[in-house]
Specification:
This protein is mostly helical. It is built from 25 helices and 6 strands. The strands form 3 sheets. It has a two-stranded antiparallel sheet with strand order 1-4. The termini are far apart. Keywords: Membrane, Transmembrane, Transmembrane helix.
């Protein structure tokens, strides 16, 4: 019979239970530690777990009372170490499909000798092309002269050509006004017109604006293009930096080892070759960055900015073009099959890099704006001010005989209602087929080139002299001998229409001399006085004396009518109150037109006004006064007349002019006074 076990004492049983309890608690703590590691680290290898467990056990075994606290310290320290480990991120660097990658595989992959040689040539070609493009873009010959040089060119153009009277168009507009209005019909100064258009488009200016607006489309687009180009270069920088980091991590040995599409080790020669290619690549990218920004900032055509930006980016892609189009298949496949290289990236490094990139981005936006674009906008405003600022509506010519610079106020605007007589004539003759008359509506065609040149240069005196008749009396009036003549009357009507249009009358289809009588006294109504001599008073010896001379349009034949009428009348002072009043009312206007000077603000105006008042109130007797017998400005005696201004007043005031009893009779006196003796 087996000996029965002795019953356990209560104390021994209690001690065994406590030991089992402590062992169970330690097992639970170890399990908890492993769960925490799994939660914070993910999957952990078994060896690491065992080391942690051993450390925990070693700490827990010596002293059961402090085991729990010491285990928690160990777990906390291990967790912190694992957290630091987790702050490092692991990524992959993928080799690019580029000619720059050739040094990684050339001589290490199975390829023919010719493939290797040709690949090396492609690498050198890539380096040479990018370097050549960089050098060319960096030269001043490529970028052109700085825009601020245009200020001097614009100033020279404005003072030497823009206001030259030779460049007036048919409408009488100056060249500068057409350029600044961006007239599409220009054949001269098209460079300046294009420049004005570029400035307006770039800065968002209207035709007459010279202040930089808030929204500047060209400036904004230029900033976007510079930013886009900079991002392209920064992308290249990052690829270069990561590539250098990969090269630096590859173990170096006496011989390069390439296995499983991975470069296991690298020799010194290949290392230096790779280092050289990356440094050359970085140098080219840096030079391209600066030259590209300067080129874009100097592009003033808003339509060319995007094209230039894309063209710059194409330079950086030359290596990819060569790889895709010319690389031998063996080398191409070897590059494409290169396995990505694992890289570690710490959180601190990522933070520092983000901060550096932020500074770089801000600098990319601010530096080009303040150093390049803002000065460009100021130069553009200065150029436009030189080209189009100030007064545009005048032209200047030099009279070499008198050595005076003569100016003329020109027309503005391009609206149809403001067309000049020449524009209306061309427009009507070009497109109007309604007229059935033998002569065009407003154009007089010369018989040949010589006649054209003579008619173009002939002055009014020569024009009226070639006519041996008084047009209105002999052609336009029903009683005239040439009324209804099929050749002369259409020509006279053409002249009448020209006279009306030149004075601003629009509807001239059925107009006659009587309809235009209110315009006869105007200084510019020379052609009207030529055609309508009777209505305008050329054949009336008692009409206003102003402009009743051949140089102002009165036909010699009409003036002879007036002379004959004086010869048949008595030799006595005789004035028509209405005509006499009109003569002195237009005195100052006639003198202003003759001298091309406004006398209303001159000190001489008061003298002109006083003489007019005296003449109107006193009549012919005022001519006897030595203070009033001569015109103030020309010093011509009123009685004798002025060949460019007025006919002699002796026809109206023969007695006051001393014609009675004069021997011999002055040529300006009426013949009727020849046989009259003084009382």
């Amino acid at each position: 019979m087996p000996t029965p076990l002795a019953p356990l004492e209560p104390l021994d049983l209690q001690r065994d239970i406590l030991d089992l309890r402590e062992e169970l608690q330690m097992s639970l703590r170890r399990l908890e530690a492993r769960l925490r590691r799994l939660e914070t680290r993910g999957l952990e290898d078994d060896n690491g777990d065992e080391r942690v467990e051993m450390k925990v056990e070693e700490k827990l075994q010596p002293d059961h009372r402090g085991a729990e606290l010491e285990a928690e310290d160990v777990i906390s320290k291990q967790t912190m170490q694992q957290s630091d480990h987790l702050s490092e991120q692991e990524g992959q660097f993928q080799f690019g499909a580029s000619a720059w990658t050739f040094p990684f595989v050339i001589g290490l992959v199975p390829a023919g000798r010719w493939d290797v040689t040709f690949s090396i040539l492609l690498l050198l070609l890539n380096l040479g092309m990018q370097a050549a493009f960089t050098i060319i873009i960096s030269t001043d010959d490529f970028r052109g002269i700085p825009f601020w040089h245009q200020i001097n060119y614009a100033k020279r153009w404005r003072i030497s050509m823009a206001h030259d009277y030779q460049y007036l168009d048919m409408a009488g507009r100056s060249l500068v006004s057409r350029v600044c209005a961006m007239d599409g019909a220009l054949i001269l100064s098209t460079t300046q017109a294009s420049l004005v258009e570029q400035i307006n488009s770039f800065l968002g200016l209207q035709e007459g604006e010279f202040e930089v607006p808030f929204f500047q489309p060209g400036l904004l687009l230029c900033m976007l293009c510079i930013l886009f180009w900079s991002l392209c270069v920064y992308k290249e920088y990052r690829n270069i930096w990561l590539g250098l980091e990969v090269v630096w991590q590859i173990p170096r040995s006496d011989q390069s080892i390439f296995r499983d599409n991975t470069l296991r080790s690298i020799c010194k020669v290949r290392f230096k070759a790779l280092l050289f290619t990356y440094l050359a690549r970085a140098a080219i990218a840096t030079l391209l960055l600066g030259a590209g920004i300067q080129w874009l900032a100097g592009t003033t055509s808003i339509t060319e900015l995007m094209l230039n930006c894309v063209a710059l980016n194409a330079i950086l892609d030359i290596d990819e073009f060569l790889f895709a189009g010319f690389t031998p298949i063996s080398i191409q496949l070897a590059v494409q099959n290169l396995k990505p290289v694992k890289m570690k990236y710490s959180r601190r490094r990522s933070q520092l890099e983000s901060f550096g990139l932020l500074i770089l981005l801000i600098g990319t936006l601010l530096l080009p704006y303040f150093l390049l674009l803002q000065p460009l906008a100021e130069s553009m405003i200065a150029v436009k001010t030189e080209l189009c600022g100030g007064n545009q509506t005048f032209v200047v010519g030099l009279n070499s005989e008198t050595q005076q610079a003569i100016a003329l106020v020109t027309k503005t605007g391009f609206d149809a209602p403001n067309l000049t007589i020449t524009e209306l004539a061309v427009d009507r003759h070009t497109f109007d087929t309604r007229s059935k008359e033998p002569y065009p509506y407003l154009l007089y065609f010369a018989a040949n080139a010589l006649a054209f040149d003579q008619n173009l240069k002939r002055d009014m005196t020569a024009e009226v002299t070639q006519w041996g008749l008084c047009i209105e009396t002999e052609v336009l009036q029903p009683s005239g001998p040439l009324y209804g003549d099929p050749v002369i009357q259409p020509l006279v009507k053409l002249m009448l229409r020209n006279a009306a249009v030149s004075l601003g009358v629009v509807d001239v289809d059925a107009i006659g001399c009587a309809d235009l009588q209110f315009l006869c006294s105007l200084p510019d109504a020379r052609l009207l006085r030529m055609v309508c001599g009777s209505t305008c008073g050329c054949n009336n010896p008692y009409a206003s004396a102003w402009h009743k001379v051949p140089s102002q349009g009165c036909m010699p034949a009409c003036l002879q009518y007036a002379t004959a009428q004086l010869a048949a009348s008595t030799c006595e002072d005789r004035i028509v109150a209405e005509e006499w009043e009109l003569s002195w009312n237009i005195y100052s206007d006639a003198m202003s037109a003759f001298y091309s000077t406004e006398f209303s603000t001159s000190t001489v105006y008061e003298s002109l006004l006083n003489l007019s008042i005296t003449m109107k109130s006193t009549g012919c007797s005022a001519l006897k006064n030595p203070n009033f017998e001569s015109e103030i400005m020309t010093r011509t005696r009123w009685c004798e007349g002025h060949p460019g201004l007025f006919r002699p007043l002796a026809g109206q005031c023969p007695v006051s002019c001393g014609c009675v009893g004069a021997s011999p009779l002055p040529v300006y006196c009426p013949i009727s006074c020849a046989n009259v003796t003084s009382p």
